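All the exercises in this workshop are built on plain-text protein records. There is nothing in a record beyond a sequence line and a structure line. A learned vocabulary of local backbone shapes supplies the integers on the structure line. The question running through the whole workshop is how a given chain folds. Here is such a record, shown just as it appears in the course material:

***
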Amino acid sequence: MASMTDEAAVRRQDALRSAVDIGLVSEAEPVVGLLDVAGIRQAATSLRAAFATPGVAVEHTFAVKAASLVPVLALLGQYGLGAEVASPGELALARAAGIPPERTVLDSPAKTTAELREALALGIAVNADNPQEIARIDALLAAGPSASPIGLRVNPQVGGGSIDAMSTATATSKFGVALRDPGAEEWVLRTYAERPWLNRLHTHTGSQGVPLPLMAAGVRAAYDLAERINAAAGRRQVTVLDIGGGLPVNFGSDAITPTFGDYADLLRAEVPGLFDGRYGIVTEFGRALLAKHGTILARVEYAKSAGGRAIAVTHAGAQVATRTVFAPEAWPLRVLALDPAGRPKGGDPVVQDVAGPCCFAGDLVARGRELPRLDSGDHVALLDTGAYYFSTHFAYNSLPRPAVWAYTAVPGAAPVFAPVRPAQSTADLLAESGAGLPPLTP
């Protein structure tokens, strides 16, 4: 088991204190996101080291949905990661970040013909999801050649983890060709035999709540299928296996478990042929690269009580912690109680709720949590929020998207902050809500 270093915890605390001190969080900007640049670098480095194998070409891509922020994608690109995209918007973000087409993978269960045409024109790798999509690609390739690597996503139907919504290899998953359905494998073998340009195979078993052995079983099923495709073809037709991503994150402590090394070691034991040099490997990790290196910092606006329960009303709720609010058992977050200066708050623990600003009763990021009593003017820090919490804003009550800042530690000095995303202005919010358009005619 690995853990965040003491240095990482110190960096985080220094950043929280400095963010308050210099006004990144304030009455005017009561909630903000913070990202640790050194932590992100360490995560990217550990990923590359875990899969590094002499004679094996490995391409790591980052799942853009986990942090759809151009400066973050550009930073990961500097550390050698490409981009896995699942929409025209995500592709545009990856291109704006300077991720080249040859390090980009397009996945989605609902690609339009226009999306496919653009990807094939750019030479982006495409993972087709279903027979209808293969037919669309047939038509596009008939109209003109493409340098894109092209594969097929298969669902090994190995089962689900503890969170249904995060399990993508169940019997009825919407993703990929369901391999155990009658006639499915025969169709896959025939499809590859008839299309020599199909040279990849893709699978993804799930993410949070999915145990490593289940993930490895999904990869094993894809590997075995690639072996059968190549045997039938009499050559190495499938040259790359895209094994997806989805490494779970521990939200209960600073411990990093499982690690990329844990997963790679299990794959080496369970699917040794994956690392013998006959196949290239593509990964698509997201949450596991960033979650531990982000924090949401918010002001406590009011402290009150109801039915004997203390309640801290803060500016961080469903708009930034959507999954935690609506599925708290699956997505619990650790909360730090901080004083008005952004320092750890002392005092005996008090059972209290930490509420957000949204106008519905369930807008709670922590329920019945023992924390030093929070008062008006204090702050809370929501830990492990570097992935998804900054990129999947929920615009309830027209609450604006908060600013996101990256911080870099400077020995002997306060952290240096760099902007990642500005706070959404009232003008921005009005514009995207149709302000200025002609009134509707009765």
In short: The chain has twelve helices and 20 strands. The two ends are 64 Å apart (CA to CA).
